[in-house]
Amino acid sequence: MNFDLSDEQKMLAEQARGLLAERSPFDHLRKLIDACAEWDQALWHELGEMGFLGVTIAESHGGLGLGELDLGVIAQELGRANAAVPFFSSIVLCADAIQLAGSEAQKAKWLPLLASGEVVGTFAYAEGPGPALATGTTFSSAGVNGTKTPVADAGIASIAVVLTASGLVLIELDQPGVTRTKLESFDQLRAHYSLSFTNAAAEMLPGKTSAATLLDRAAVQAAFEATGAAEACLHMARDYALSRQIFGRPLASYQAIKHKLADLAMLVELSRSNAYFAGWAVEQSPDQLPAAAAAARLSAIAAFETGARENLQVHGGIGYTFEANCHFFYRRERVLSVHVGNREYWADRLIAHLPGTQAEAA
Amino acid sequence: MDFNDTPQEATFRAEAKAWLASNAPSHVVPSGVMLDDAEEVSRGKAWQRALYDGGYAGITLPTALGGRGGSIIEAVVFAEEEARYNLPKGPYIAIGLGMAIAVIARHGTDQQRARFVEPTLRGDLTWCQLFSEPAAGSDLAALRTKAVAYDGDWVVNGQKVWSSWAHRSDWGILVARTDPKLPKHKGLTFFVVDMKSPGIDIRPIRQISGASDFNETFLTDVRIPDANRVGAPGEGWACCMTVLMGERLGSGSEKSTVGPLIDYALATPGHAGGTALESGGIRLALAQALAEEQGSRYFEARLRTMVSRGENPGALAGMVKLAYASRLQKTSGLAMELRGLDAIAPAPQDAATREVQHDYIWSTVMRIAGGADEVLKNQIAERVLGMPGDVRMDKDVPFDQLR
Ligand SMILES: Cc1cc2nc3c(=O)[nH]c(=O)nc-3n(C[C@H](O)[C@H](O)[C@H](O)COP(=O)(O)OP(=O)(O)OC[C@H]3O[C@@H](n4cnc5c(N)ncnc54)[C@H](O)[C@@H]3O)c2cc1C
């Protein structure tokens, strides 16, 4: 058994971590918020140049042609840094949908642009409150009609994969049939829009891959992202507690704090372990993917939720300030807890696809 | 990343599988069958004897000591295969193999090794652990049982408690205070004691489960020859650490406790018509428990990978038991709630519910023994996260000046 990342994957993670520590420190995030920036465009292009955006995109389409775990280690680092980039929308969701369900022409046209970062894409699935995969939007000979909302990163995106009653369609957003309305986003570093379509021109994604499968695959990456973020919360809380003196000794020496963080450390490890398995299953055991993705997602939500909340708690009053760094994760956590299906969606999916006996044999 | 055995592991696994297939079935205890204590011990000894004859007793122990001289990963592989059979392997065997032999091999004399190791591997000797006392559990070094050197022997007086299977054991591993003038960790010495020695009085304790697997053990002027002292006087704490390291590795469980619960919910009518599994609350609770169980399984796979590379997971390994114990309590508790009032008084033929009741009772032990939850959390905080140790008022004070 070799249930660990490969040396190459560990190196990839280190590179991403180094770059993000340098280019996207928390002070930089604060500046982006103050400037009302929707994203960190410079960082995005740098990620593209370094090949991080095309990790799972085929070499023939300008990517690196690597696997889901390679993408996962990058998602984990982006989560740790809370970076303000549309990685999840553009790469994990949009590019993946095109790569799996797109025609040869669609792939040839869009994947190289997505891999380089020149074009940003997004994936529109929700339609207000209600199920994650909503299909009130229609696609007919007249075009696409309906409203998808909220849609992450739709302000900077040029294309969107849109879930309609007839399946997945690809829409170029710069056209008269599309109206984008910016919404106020709870996460100041991830903008959300409402997208209204009136006879908008669109193309089908002809492949058979279902939206539910795309969500499974995205959930694996969401689990990696949340694991990285939860671990960042753990370390931030630990470091603060070590430096803060209370009643004559370090805050970190009190059991109430030690036990809280030991519990969190355990949740982070369980979450990481499930994410590893789910990342492995994407390619090696697709039958197990729905259950593995669901388990990874549920574990990751549990770890990040605890991390975001308890990190702020350990900081006390300073945790409530914009100058401290807890709030980035406190807000991002809620995004990750509800995008690509909430806890209830994944609980249902896990129960409907109980882990197979293959895992048992493994 | 893969789940495959290395070629050597695969060869070993195939051998172990084949050997078990021809030797294990006749020793299997059908599940649900309750044996009386004497019968259970004799079956446990017989299976241990079979392991020894097959060359699978003491897999990691050097051949010079009667072991197999294999690797840790071979021991893990064998345990995985062995766990496919319900074999009699109680504390009376496990304490000897995991604790007594470990200490004697590491801290003992050649004579002690010759006398105890092979007979224990062969299943001829059963062992109990005489560590805990009424005032010394997690804080083991607070123990008060005294051993005083006298005429080439040691004379032991004190009280031990929670001594599992002491009433059916040939020998005990014992830690006692030999120098109360030293701080508490420094004045301890380790012994092996013949449980038939005069002055040992073993009284069963009635447990919440109804059984009496553990005991109070009173020691009154018990004479232990100096030849049965293991390690130097004052080396007792180091010996205890050797024991506890063994105790805290691999305390998880292979068996899914959530899977059967999902099957049960599927087969049970719910409040609002349909099955119980259609209730959102039940689905969520079961799915979260299952996600955690899966996470633990893959976490163990990561630890196993570290071990096979010769790395030591240290206090990280404590997370397996920490997660398992609480999950067992949660899921067996939930299993009872799912059954409604039937959980309290099931029909006579309903063995599954009785097992759930048993798990609910047993989960409390998992959270206390072999490193209590709170103790494991301290270790994780201190050794994995690098947080400061607890304030210890008694650490450097001579034991006889405490309190
Ligand atoms: C079924 C069973 C079988 C056993 N078999 C044996 C045996 O064969 N031989 C043997 O020697 N012993 C045996 N034990 C004893 C076992 O090792 C002890 O119960 C265990 O070490 C805990 O000690 P204690 O019971 O004294 O509880 P305590 O140590 O008094 O703990 C009470 C509570 O305090 C908490 N606590 C302890 N220290 C700290 C701390 N530093 N910070 C915060 N909280 C803390 C604990 O977590 C627990 O919740 C057995 C126990 C059980 C239940």
Structure description:
The complex is a heterodimer of chains A (362) and B (403). The termini of chain A are close together. Chain A is globular and about 75 Å long. Chain A folds into three domains: 7-119, Butyryl-Coa Dehydrogenase, subunit A, domain 1, CATH 1.10.540.10; 122-204, Butyryl-CoA Dehydrogenase, subunit A, domain 2 (Beta Barrel), CATH 2.40.110; 211-361, Butyryl-CoA Dehydrogenase, subunit A, domain 3. Residues 357-362 of chain A have low confidence and may be disordered. With 362 residues, chain A is an alpha+beta fold. In chain A, the strands form three sheets. Chain A has a four-stranded mixed sheet, with helices on one face. Chain A has a four-stranded antiparallel sheet with strand order 2-3-7-6, with no helix packed on it. A two-stranded antiparallel ribbon of chain A has the order 9-10. Chain A is built from twelve helices and ten strands. Chain B is an alpha+beta fold. Chain B folds into three domains: 7-89, Acyl-CoA dehydrogenase/oxidase, N-terminal domain (Butyryl-Coa Dehydrogenase, subunit A, domain 1, Orthogonal Bundle), CATH 1.10.540; 128-234, Beta Barrel (Butyryl-CoA Dehydrogenase, subunit A, domain 2); 252-384, Butyryl-CoA Dehydrogenase, subunit A, domain 3 (Up-down Bundle). Chain B has helices spanning 7-23, 37-54, 72-82, 91-107, 110-121, 236-248, 258-267, 280-308, 318-339, 351-368, 373-384, and strands at 127-130, 146-150, 153-161, 171-177, 188-194, 200-204, 215-225, 229-230. Chain B has a four-stranded mixed sheet with strand order 1-4-5-8. A four-stranded antiparallel sheet of chain B has the order 2-3-7-6, with no helix packed on it. In chain B, β2 (146-150) and β3 (153-161) form a beta hairpin. In chain B, 40% of the residues are buried. The chains are: A alpha+beta (362), B alpha+beta (403). Chains A and B meet through α7, β10, α8, α9 and α11 of A and α8, α9 and α11 of B. Bound molecules: flavin-adenine dinucleotide. Flavin-adenine dinucleotide (FAD) binds at residues 128-129, 131-132, 137-139, 162-164, 214, 365, 368-369, 372-375, 378, 390 of chain B.
